[in-house]
Specification:
With about 675 residues, this protein is mainly beta. It has 8 helices and 28 strands. About 15% of the residues lie in helices and about 45% in strands.
Length: about 675
């Protein structure tokens, strides 16, 4: 039976079941509809990338009316017959009863959409619209900055028409043009590189103070060898605050500014209150200057004095933000004091402090690989990257350390080197982790080998590790991103403090559901510790003490479950989430409904992954976000945890902000040891 026919048959069976059951509404909303829609409904969104078939109309760049760039889109075609038959089948079954008929009208709405199949859509995403102008001379570069409120990067002729929006825009300081120019990879007089221009859009969008960006190429009327570039950017309102609480006795308040005076400087401030701890008040803050004077070097100073740590540090770093960046590196100097807790048994905890000084330096170089595609097929190019790192840790304050006791706190100097083969490209999408802004989804693969030597107290040892990852579209079903990593020290010819890690992330295409849009996420993770130290443990839930001995704590396991018992040296976690992006707008904040189900196994490392230690969590979250503001997504989450540990609650309600998330990229960074967390 074909996949499509099977899904239609499956939906028929389910629809007949729900018409004969009075408890069908929750089943449909939480589980059935995402599965039915996975293979039968067309994607609901169009791409916004400029294609060669679209036309650009220009006005003078200093026009005080509408923006000078306008993109005309092609008309849409009717929906395919197969999807229409699917809707008719479900409609026939659900129209048998008054209540199910009303539910159908609420959830489904047949719309006319593009007949282009998913394969053609993927090809459009991969297509580089700048290839036609590759090798031409860049004559002029114009910077156009749009207002924060009442404008649309996809329709630059739109202007704010409400007095309130105009007033709000007047309170915002636009990003300085020189700051935008510093983030350009090209200058006047250079030859246009199609791959570089495409990457540069993504680089600008990755800035925290930029909501979206587009780069348009305008051919010269007088000389066919020259082109002009128009860089259109739209800021986000840079001031934000957030609140996170676990109760009236413990909460955090954040106040951030990500574009001070339009110069792109960032300041993060978090104020903490914890009445049940000896230190009730805490502060964690950082000042950051991205891309100092166009060098793509970021500088950061951080200071913290909280319940769990004191930290003072400074660092400068430059990553391989595009395949064309040849040199990268970083340096960090910091001092950290941790107020830690060692768990002796299920009920006994010992508090102690550690203070460590860190000096870290790494350098990397990118080379064009042995294969260089022809210019006519220029895309993101394959790169060979080599890097080296030296990292020194010196403990000023620590527990008693011997060759067999508290080995984690040894003074060490680590020398690492890595070589990686990276191929990466990106396509533009939306409604993945954001609520409407353009998101750059990575395609490609990475293979990386890491080796090194650790010189430390009591003993020395070698290190070896390998990482392989790949991501892209999986046929017509959606996006798949996976990785396998293994690494560890070699001592006496066997692994020491080794880690085996695997992860797999899937999300389907965006589907239309009435006036809303839906996306399904599935995230699988496996982690195994190999000959770890006795006090090294991982977790699948929130732990009451955030720093238990080694501070190894996974907050992405069973979401919202809080317990000190969810620890071991092997874990397997399945996270599923269905997100419904609704059309509801509350004073500019879009509403999304997220239904989640989490399954987790936590065990010792000498037993089978599914032999015991099974926990689960289910719930729903209400998320609010305004992409024009620098605020993180705000969430109210309700969770239910059947079979929870004895020191945990079976029901939890919490609220707080969700940091901006990104997909794992395929770039090589600082050589590092595979972390056990």
């Amino acid at each position: 039976m074909k996949t499509g026919n099977f899904n239609i048959y499956f939906c028929k069976v389910i629809s007949k079941f729900v018409t004969n059951s009075r408890n069908f509404i929750a089943i449909i909303i939480i589980g059935i509809i995402p599965i039915c829609l996975l293979s039968n409904v067309r994607p609901a969104h169009k791409l916004y990338a400029l294609t060669l078939e679209q036309k650009i109309h220009l006005l003078p760049t200093d026009s005080t009316k509408k923006d000078s760039v306008k993109v005309k889109k092609k008309p849409k075609d009717p929906i395919p017959q197969k999807s229409e038959n699917f809707y008719k089948t479900i409609k026939k079954d659900l129209y048998k009863h008054k209540m199910t008929k009303m539910l159908y009208k609420t959830l489904f709405r047949i719309k006319h959409s593009d007949t282009t199949n998913l394969q053609k859509e993927k090809e459009a995403k991969d297509k580089n619209p700048y290839l036609l102008y590759h090798g031409k001379v860049i004559r002029n570069i114009h910077i156009q900055r749009m207002e924060v409120f009442g404008t649309d990067i996809r329709d630059t002729t739109k202007v704010p028409d409400h007095g309130f929006l105009k007033t709000a825009n007047s309170l915002h300081v636009k990003t300085e043009k020189n700051i935008i120019r510093h983030n350009l990879l090209f200058r006047e007089g250079m030859l246009l590189d199609a791959s570089e221009i495409k990457h540069n859009e993504r680089v600008i969008r990755s800035l925290r103070f930029i909501k979206d960006a587009r780069i348009y190429v305008v051919p010269s009327d007088s000389n066919e060898y020259f082109v002009d570039l128009i860089v259109v950017t739209k800021d986000v309102y840079p001031i934000s605050f957030g609140v996170s609480a676990r109760g009236v006795d413990e909460f955090k308040f954040a106040l951030n500014h990500i574009n001070i005076l339009g110069f792109g400087h960032e300041m993060d401030n978090e104020f903490q209150f914890n009445k049940i701890e000896e230190q009730e008040f805490g502060y964690d803050g950082a000042y950051r200057i991205p891309n100092i004077r166009g060098t793509f070097v970021t500088g950061e100073v951080r200071y913290a004095n909280t319940v769990t740590e004191d930290f003072t540090g400074i660092r400068f770093f430059r990553n391989f933000i595009t395949p064309d960046i040849k040199n990268a590196g970083g340096i960090e100097i910091s001092t950290q004091r941790l107020r830690q807790i060692k768990q002796l048994n299920d009920t006994t905890f010992v508090r102690f402090n550690t203070k460590v000084e860190l000096q870290d330096l790494w350098l990397g170089r990118s080379y064009r690989s042995f294969y260089d595609p022809p210019v006519i097929h220029v895309k993101e190019r394959l790169r060979l990257v080599v890097a080296g790192r030296v990292s020194r840790k010196h403990y000023v304050t620590r527990p008693v350390v011997t060759a067999d006791t508290n080995k984690t706190y040894r003074n060490t100097t680590l020398f690492l080197a890595s070589v990686g083969l990276s191929h990466r490209s990106y396509f533009k999408d939306r409604l993945i982790f954001a609520f409407g802004r353009t998101e750059d989804v990575p395609l490609g693969y990475l293979s990386e080998l890491t080796g090194g030597y650790e010189s430390g107290e009591f003993f020395d040892r070698w290190y070896s590790g390998i990482r392989v990852s790949k991501g892209g579209y999986f046929r017509n079903h959606g996006y798949l991103n996976g990785a396998i990593e293994i690494g560890g020290f070699i001592k006496q010819r066997r692994f020491d403090q080794g880690v085996l890690s695997g992860r797999l992330l899937f999300f389907n295409h965006l589907y239309q559901l009435g006036n809303s849009q839906l996306r399904l996420f599935i995230n699988l993770r496996y982690l195994l510790g190999i000959r770890r130290f006795d006090d090294e443990l991982v977790s699948i839930g929130l732990r009451r003490f955030e720093d238990v001995f080694l501070s190894i704590n996974d907050r992405n396991g069973i979401r919202g479950l809080e317990s000190s018992r969810l620890i071991g040296q092997q874990k397997f976690v399945i996270n599923t989430e269905t997100v419904l992006f609704t059309p509801f707008n509350i004073i500019g904040f879009q509403l999304a409904l997220a239904v989640f189900a989490d399954l987790g196994w936590i065990n010792p490392n000498d037993v089978a992954p599914f032999s015991g230690g099974f926990y689960q969590g289910y719930g729903v979250g209400f998320r609010f976000r305004n992409d024009n503001l620098a605020f993180n997504t705000f969430q109210i989450r309700i969770g239910f945890y059947p079979g929870e540990p004895i020191d945990a609650d079976g029901f939890a309600v919490d609220f707080g902000s969700i940091p901006r998330l990104n997909l794992n990229d395929f770039d090589v960074r600082s050589p590092s040891i595979l972390e056990f967390n």
